[in-house]
């Protein structure tokens, strides 16, 4: 296994930017605000989306006609959190006629990163094939995520995987990675590789920044980060935004950190919420 480089490790240690008390508080908000957001909301919980992995997803905010859908992939450095922590935006999106799908995936190190990517892509395939029966519009799927979830969302934005699942190349019509990781190779020299257990060729094959270089299609996307991020996350957002969009700079949300920025999706008046809604047809 590659050795840890203390400077690189510091650049990717998100927990170092807040205290343990703050971290416990914000992760509790994920669960509490998700529960509040879906209370009484129309939807279906606990749907099996992938026979091979056995994982489940929840559908929230459905209506009387098929709705465009936001698939939100949780973070947790691929080894923590779940769909139950991930629906805090569902009520805010429901008010604009947008449904929310939150999938679980098998956490590392129980699953390899290749398997986690496969499962998230399988969740997208489920929305495309089965979503209409649950009130979803398979023609308008936007995939987003936070931190490790931003990496997984980006792995659905690139080309090269859709045909194997019998999907059209444009199955994902919009991307919304927040505080994401797009070049996995630096993580070989961090503590994160204790559970990813990657080598250089595997890390390269799992890096959406490298895969996007060979991607002809560029779906509309918002690449965002918090004002207070470890330096590695800022750099990753900058390089991926530059490659994918080729203009301006990533959306940087002021007065937010790596962990609480994504909770802004629960407030329809925040810049992050408005940016997400911009990837959907006007309601």
TrEMBL record:
Protein name: Alpha/beta hydrolase
Keyword Hydrolase: yes
Entry GO MF terms: hydrolase activity
Record-annotated BD-FAE-like domain positions: 64-158
Record Gene3D superfamilies: alpha/beta hydrolase
Keywords tagged on the record: Hydrolase
Keyword set includes Hydrolase: yes
